[in-house]
Structure formats: structure tokens, C-alpha cells
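=== RUN LOG ===
request id: a7f3
mode: sequence -> structure
chains: 1
length: 501
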Amino acid sequence: MPGGAFGGGGRAGRGRAEQYQGRVTCYVVVACMVAAVGGSLFGYDVGISGGVTSMDGFLEKFFPSVYRNKMHVHENNYCKYNSQSLAAFTSSLYLAGLVASLVASPVTRKYGRRASIISGGLCFLIGAALDASSVNLTMLIFGRIMLGFGIGFGNQAVPMYLSEMAPTHLRGGLNMMFQLATTLGIFTANMINYGTEKIKPNGWRISLGLAAVPALVMTAGGILLPETPNSLVERGSPEKGRQVLEKLRGTTNVGAELQDIIEASELAKSIKSPFRNMLERKNRPQLIMAVFMPAFQILTGINAILFYAPVLFQTMGFGSKASLYSSALTGAVLVASTFISIATVDRWGRRALLIAGGVQMVICQIIVAVILGVKLGNEKELSRSYSAAVVTVVCLFVAAFGWSWGPLGWTVPSEIFPLETRSAGQSITVAVNLLLTFAIGQSFLSLLCAFKYGIFVFFAGWVAAMTLFVCLFLPETKGVPIEETIFLWRKHWFWKKIIPA
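=== RESULT ===
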């Protein structure tokens, strides 16, 4: 077994990055754009769930007690939607996705990235059909579980696919196509909800059923897309890997990059249990990042805001149409801010965006908490001017997330793992993300009822903690080849004390 760049004193990939050749080809851009559509599945569901759960027809059919609370004029503003069964409608998907992400790891490693992408698309198609035609709560929840399987497979495979296809100097921007698709999915869902809310009483069926559209694109894309060179080499087809790499880079001079992939693959094949290997001391920094990056991404509170945006705005006294319009506005801001990240991530670096975004999010959450604490009681409504202020500050919060922790919470974990633990590491990242998403989704309505405006202070504390975490423990991965990121940990002031020499 030749020495690797990933431990054991090897040197695979050291100093070879400057020999990489190639340019940005239409082939790589199209492949990344089509693959990134997988992100729209996650985004569409995030956007659609909050809108559907605020629609009268949906609540009256599946959650009549919540509907009665909503229509009760004197019900406590913060507790109108406090229902564990309603929360389970949203969160069940993410628990299923957590299980699916762990199953997806061996599938992705053994059968390739495309196999997981196709599997995710098919599961999502089935889930969309079940939810749109649901006649009872059991059928509705089962459809959500199938959607969760689709998201688990898609979120496991797509970021890895993008990182492996992209050239080193544009890996951050191209990898963010996943987040861009996610934000476009959220915005599209918000606009669809705004339209279907007027179709009573069954507009919600259209909202849920249209999830089949991105699922079809993802499935078809998975069938038509090329496999990544890394996966082809890993599965014993180095010549096919070279052919794909030549098409991606637009040159036949891909020897240096291919050699890095081959040496990484040879080491990967010697690892019988990638998950067990993740626990070794040499992989401790990547394991920590695989847990903390997705956990912090969710603990910003963004999913609570996006899941329940219409519910949250109605809690603040907005009417039904106004709340859907406001949530559509936040979705548009999220899309626009993602373009900022795509344009700057490979120029300014990951750390700068994460730190600046964290500071802005803390400030915005504190401002919202103060406004709600002072101006919104249990039964009062915000004035027009304060309502506008809240929407503005929430949009600034969403914008900060959109150009920092939103895309980078996926990008950083996808580019720091050596090949032998890459699929396992991505599975851990996705599993933690979905576990926390499930926890926040299931508990947010109860937390809102208990904490009231203090819920924003709760999330602000987490954002402050994660910003400090980045300052102290995350090295900069900008411009570093994916097979050479191991050297960053050996140079870092803290991690070099952890990794064995």
C-alpha cells in the first residue's frame, strides 16, 4: 500500500497541486448545475411545509384542533400553533432522512454518486405523489417519510459529487450550486404557496404535489450525468476516470490530478470500515467538523424561520396573505444572498464569510427579540411600522445566512475528507444536519410558546458560539485541492497537537 496524504506518514498529493491543468468547461458547469438540482428537493420542502401548515383547508382536514386555536381571537399569540402532531408533519421527513443518509453512505461508495442521486429522486417522487393524494394523517406522514428518504440520499451524494467534479480554484463556487438550488427551491415553494392559498380548500394538494417536478429533474439528471472521476477510480475503472476527467478539465494533461485520485483510492480500498476509521485520532479534526458545522448551521435558527415563516409572521399579527407574502420575500432574499457567496467564496475565503455572517445574524436576532419583547404581548399585534421593521431585520438575518452558513455549512464538510472516509464523513454531516433539523422542527412551536420572543435570544447565543468556533478551529480551505486538505490540519495551531506526527 503506497503512503497517502491522509496519515501514516505518506505524501500522496504533496506539492502536486500546482501541476493541475485544465479550464472551466461547459461539461463541468452543466454537470454541476444538473446535479445541484438535488438541493432544490430540500429547499422546496422547507418552503412548502411552512406555507401548507398555515393554510386553513389543510389544518381543518388534518389538524382540526390547531385550526380552532388559530381561529380563536384571544388565543395567546405565541401558542396558536403549539401542536406536536403538526410539528411531526414537518419533522418526520428529517428523521427519515437521517436514517436514509446512513444507508446512502455504502451505496454511494459501492455503486457511485449517481446511484444515490437517482435513488433520492425516485423516493422523492413517491413521497410527493402520496402527500398530494393523502386522505388521512397516516398516508400524509408516510409520504413525508418517503420524501425524507429522498432528501437523505440526495444530501449525502450531491455535495460530494459537486466537490469531486469541480476544479480546485472554483470548487467553492460550484459546490454552492447545491445551496443555490436549495434557496431557489425555497423561493419557488413560497411563491407557489402564495398562489395555492387562494385555491380553497385543496390548494395545499397542488403545493405538495409539485414537489415531483424537481424530483423528476434530479432522477433524469442522475441517469444522464457522468460519474465522478474519484468514484470511477475508487470502483476500479481508472481509465474511465481519466476520460471523464479529461472532459471535465478540457485537456488531456490531467496526469497530476489523476495520480492524486489514484493514490487516494488505493488508500481508501485498504480501509474496511470508513465509519470506524473516522474515529481514529488522525481523522479527529474532520470528525469534529462533520458534527459541528451542520449542527451550528441548524442552530442559527434558520430552519425554524423558513419552516414556519408563515406561522411565525401570523404569530406576530400578520394576516394570512401578508404572512405568505413576507415569507416569499425572505425566500427571495435567500436566493439573492447566495449569489454573493458564490461570487466571493473563492476570493475572500470560507472563514471571512462565516465570521461576518455570524456577527450580522447575532445583531439581527437581538433586534427582533427586543422589538417583539417590547411591542408584542400575548394578544397584541405589531403596528405597521414595527411589522415592517421586523420583516426587514428578518430579511437581513436571512441574507447573512444565505451568504455564509447556508452554503458553507455544506461546502466545508464536503471538501475536507480524504477519499477513504469521504462518503462516511458526508453521511455523518447529513445525519447531524437532519437530526438537528428534526429536533428543531419538532420542538420549535413548543419553544416559541414557552420562550416567546426569547427564542431569538436562544438562537443568537448559538450563533455567537459558532462564530467563535470558526475563529479558533476552522482552517481556510480556499484554493486547496480536495486531496490535500489534510495538510491544513497539520499546520493549524490547535489540530497539529491532536494529529499524530
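=== NOTES ===
The longest helix spans residues 419-451.
The chain has 24 helices and no strands.
=== END ===
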